[in-house]
Design a protein that fits this description.
By secondary structure, the chain is α+β, with helices and mostly antiparallel strands. It is built from 4 helices and 6 strands; from the N terminus they run ββααββαββα. The two termini are about 15 Å apart.
Length: about 100
């Protein structure tokens, strides 16, 4: 949202034109995501952290990209995703955060 890649539409989150351009540069096939069952973009509240994250086919595709790049991996037997130091730096370069609100 901070970089205008997602917008809040009447039916929830939608991918903006800027978001489509950004993802095309990361080799994420938006056309195939749009054809999948269910929404492409959906906000999902994490019950434990009480913070929203991106769900839907786009959220799954981005997580798959993060795994494929070796930036992070799931901790066996948990839902925890742990980033390596290099992965954290790469993710921060791709999605810079200037401030965090809680």
């Amino acid at each position: 949202l901070a970089r205008d890649f997602l917008e809040i539409g009447a039916n929830g989150l939608v991918l903006s034109g800027a978001g489509q351009d950004f993802l095309a540069g990361g080799n994420i096939d938006i056309t195939s995501l749009a054809k999948q069952r269910g929404p492409m973009c959906r906000e999902c509240l994490d019950w434990s952290a009480r913070r929203s994250h991106l769900a839907g086919s786009l959220g799954r595709a981005l997580l798959g990209h993060i795994y494929a790049q070796g930036w992070a991996k799931r901790v066996d037997g948990t839902r925890i995703v742990r980033f390596s130091a290099a992965g954290q730096a790469a993710f921060g370069g791709m999605f810079p955060v200037t401030s965090v609100t809680t």
